[in-house]
Specification:
By secondary structure, the protein is of the alpha/beta class. Helices cover 46% and strands 24% of the residues. Helix 9 links the parallel strand 7 and strand 8. The radius of gyration is 25 Å and the shape is elongated.
Length: 292
């Protein structure tokens, strides 16, 4: 038997449909059907029953499915071991990031990769941390930088790289009109928030809760750069990373309110239990070295 037949067998079991299994293994439904028949003929057992609800594994199918998955996992480990023996890390790594490559030390990471693993390239995808985390969970990203207060998240492996301080940024007209703002007055200003699942939103909710108030969303931004721009044009106060806020203040875009600070963590993230590849290992090593 061939490994591709086992992959097809597993795909049919997981999808319950020849058509969807064909999409999963990037071939046609007739080819999937032919591969299944060839495998059943070789094993001498029937693996599936066709029902109105789709393809259902037989008792023999359930038993052999576990063996097929173990065989495919072993093949993956063997390939990975061979890559390590060759030392040939190669391929494209889909890497999710938050903004500001300098603060993320991406320049150092890219230099180290180019020197040691020239056949590994990064495909960077930028966005808010909650979207990046979901991208890793769904397999749309191989790894990521993300902001998180948690040390553990379901389905993910996190490694803290450094503390990220957060500050309140005010539009210049608001800061000038209210030079002696206290926390209670601050929470009554217009605000630019983020989606509920965003780490910045969690800290904004905490700021409001500290004076017994509830943050009620009005304007919402879907990136840190959007928050900065919306604060700068006067739409409301917002939370920013301190390095971003200080840069914007130096540029005359906004004013930092000095009465509150919080912090979260910049983390390296990858999927838990995922098949390790030498390319992702190479990126991880470069990231961890860049962060000491």
């Amino acid at each position: 038997m061939e490994l591709y037949q086992l992959k097809t067998f597993v795909a049919i079991a997981r999808e319950g449909s020849l058509t969807r299994a064909a999409e999963r293994v990037f071939t046609s439904a007739p080819a999937v059907s032919a591969q299944l028949k060839a495998l059943e003929d070789e094993l001498g057992v029937k693996l599936f029953e066709r029902t109105p609800r789709g393809m259902t594994p037989t008792e023999a199918g359930h038993t052999l499915l576990e063996e097929a998955e173990r065989t495919l996992a072993s093949a993956t480990r063997m390939r990975s071991a061979a890559e390590q023996i060759r030392g040939a890390a190669q391929g494209v790594v889909r890497f999710g990031t938050v903004v500001d490559p300098v603060a993320l030390r991406l320049g150092e990471v890219l230099v180290k990769l180019a020197e040691r693993h020239p056949q590994v390239s990064l495909q960077l995808q930028q966005g808010l941390s909650h979207r990046t985390l979901e991208g890793v969970r769904r397999g749309e990203l191989d790894c990521a930088y993300a902001l998180s207060d948690s040390e553990k998240l379901d389905g993910l492996v996190l490694q803290r790289l450094g503390v990220v301080d957060l500050a309140v940024a005010l539009p210049l007209p608001l800061a000038e009109a209210h030079p002696a703002l206290d926390l209670e007055a601050l929470t009554q200003l217009p605000w630019v928030g983020t989606p509920p699942s965003c780490i910045l939103r969690a800290h904004l909710d905490g700021l409001f809760a500290s004076v017994g108030r509830e943050y009620r969303p009005a304007r919402t931004a879907d990136s840190e750069s959007a928050i900065r721009s919306m604060v700068a044009v006067g739409l409301g106060a917002g939370l920013l990373r301190v390095d971003q806020a200080e840069q914007a203040e130096r540029n005359g875009e906004l004013k930092i309110w000095r009465g509150w600070r919080s912090h979260t963590w910049l983390c390296w993230v990858e999927a838990a239990g995922s098949s390790r590849t030498t390319a992702v290992d190479a990126v991880r090593s470069a990231v961890l070295e860049a962060w000491g």
